[in-house]
From TrEMBL:
PANTHER family: ARGININE/DIAMINOPIMELATE/ORNITHINE DECARBOXYLASE, ORNITHINE DECARBOXYLASE 1-RELATED. GO terms for molecular function: ornithine decarboxylase activity. It catalyses: L-ornithine + H(+) = putrescine + CO2. It comes from the Bacteria. InterPro entries: Ala_racemase/Decarboxylase_C, De-COase2_N, De-COase2_pyr-phos_BS, Orn/DAP/Arg_de-COase, Orn_de-COase, PLP-binding_barrel. Keywords: Decarboxylase, Lyase, Pyridoxal phosphate. Pathway: Amine and polyamine biosynthesis; putrescine biosynthesis via L-ornithine pathway; putrescine from L-ornithine: step 1/1. It is an enzyme of class 4 (lyase). This is ornithine decarboxylase. Belongs to the Orn/Lys/Arg decarboxylase class-II family. It comes from Streptomyces pseudovenezuelae. Residues 29-272 form the Orn/DAP/Arg decarboxylase 2 N-terminal domain. Its EC number is 4.1.1.17. Its cofactor is pyridoxal 5'-phosphate.
Length: 396
């Protein structure tokens, strides 16, 4: 698989071109293709789509139809997965943070597999979901990822032994181990060291008489079509990442001896490059700041609070369909709200944009399908959340 982003499909381009108003469009054909590529690269891995990346019924149903399950982080997400047609035995509760009530609710829904990382959480699962299966999340450094996800989740190997032994003593099934190497993980090394830690821990657990049935390698697989904060393509080493994961799984099976299943919870990788926002130019303005230097600002109708929450860490590829051959000017790109966070950070590179952009001109924000719907405010400053549509043409 090439590290170059797959070009937007004809169906996605047509949907963006035809959209009369702002919206986010998801290309189900592209999402299916990304899923199938992932399955080809990692045939031993069962996919549990991380709902938080794109809690859209049509996307969840499309992936479920291909055999994917779902990783939910709250009873509401679990309910959505079931409603969208994911069989309950392919759904797990992947959040280590949950209240007694959340656990009881998930149990009532029939979900029987829970992430955990503390003995307190294990005690609560034993009480409110008796007999459930638990997998323990190991802490990782998050190094190499754009969003490290460190600190809040995961425990040390020594604590994992304690957590899984407590689970066994409480009548739960100690079923697995999990990691998350950080979202938009840019290095294969991160998986390498996580897989080494997992192998060491599986061996320790085996000596304690705990034989797990699965390892969950979490999310973190990257989107392919982002630009970094300065506008350079990120170009993650996806082929190397897959090769390291395959080799690590082979080693884990060897260490474990008994049958071992593998699960992953990709979110971003499946949907980011196959969703795009059709927005508008609010205004291209040139003004002098306190330093007296002239600066162009391109204000768009979408920004941090309505679709581009992650604009502090990445830049998106922009396409101006009504300006095929423009003269460019360097501009700071910002959203429409009356909030200064709603812009690419000031130390971030400027973006080359057509000089003659006018208010109302359409703009396509590409590779913006992950964490767009889920991180959208409920109309901050009176700017409505973006509606979504889906295209469902298979690619030729
Ligand atoms: C437990 C868990 N699994 C999976 C994911 C999805 O991660 P990504 O979108 O990087 O694949 C997340 C993201 O925060 C997560 O917290």
């Amino acid at each position: 698989m090439s590290a170059t982003p797959i070009p937007e499909s004809a169906a996605l381009r047509a949907a963006l071109a035809a959209a009369p108003e702002d919206r986010i469009v998801f290309d189900l054909g592209g999402i299916e293709e990304r899923y199938e590529t992932l399955r080809r690269e990692l045939p031993d891995v069962l996919v549990r789509f991380a709902l938080k990346a794109c809690p859209v019924d049509e996307v969840i149903a499309c992936l479920a139809h291909l055999g994917a399950g779902a990783d939910g982080a709250s009873p509401r997400e679990l309910e959505q997965a079931l409603r969208a047609g994911v069989p309950v035995d392919r759904v797990h509760y992947g959040n280590t943070v949950k209240s007694d009530r959340d656990i009881a609710e998930a149990h009532r829904l029939g979900v029987d597999t829970f992430a955990t990382d503390s003995v307190e959480d294990v005690a609560a699962i034993a009480e409110h979901a008796p007999g459930a299966r638990v997998f323990c999340r190991l802490a990782t450094t998050g190094e190499g990822a754009l969003w490290g996800l460190t600190g809040k989740f995961g425990c040390s190997p020594a604590d994992a032994v304690r957590v899984l032994e407590t689970a066994r003593e409480s009548g739960l099934t100690p079923a697995g181990l999990s990691v998350h190497v950080g979202s938009q993980q840019m290095t294969a090394d991160a998986w390498h060291s996580a897989l080494e830690d997992l192998a060491d821990l599986l061996a320790v657990l085996g000596r304690r008489g705990i034989t797990l049935d699965h390892v969950n390698l979490g999310g973190g697989l990257p989107a392919l079509g982002y630009l970094d904060r300065y506008g350079t393509p990120l170009d993650p080493p996806i082929d190397k990442i897959f090769a390291v994961i395959r080799e690590g799984m082979r080693h884990l099976k060897e260490v474990h001896g008994a049958h071992l299943r593998f699960v992953m919870e990709p979110g971003r990788h499946l949907v980011a490059d196959h969703g795009a926002i059709r927005a508008r130019v609010t205004r291209l303005a040139e003004r002098r700041g306190p330093d007296g230097e002239p600066q162009y600002w391109l204000y768009l109708s979408c920004g941090k609070f309505n679709g581009l929450y992650e604009m502090d860490a990445v830049q998106y590829r922009l396409h101006f369909p009504t300006h095929p051959d423009p003269t460019h000017v360097p501009a700071v790109v910002a959203g429409p709200t009356c909030d200064s966070d709603d812009a690419y950070p000031s130390d971030q590179g400027l973006v080359r944009v057509p000089k003659d952009l006018a208010s109302g001109d359409p703009v396509w924000v590409l590779s913006s399908g992950a964490y767009a719907i889920s991180y959208m405010t409920q109309g901050f400053n009176g700017f409505d959340p973006l509606p979504y549509t889906v295209t469902n043409e298979r690619r030729p």
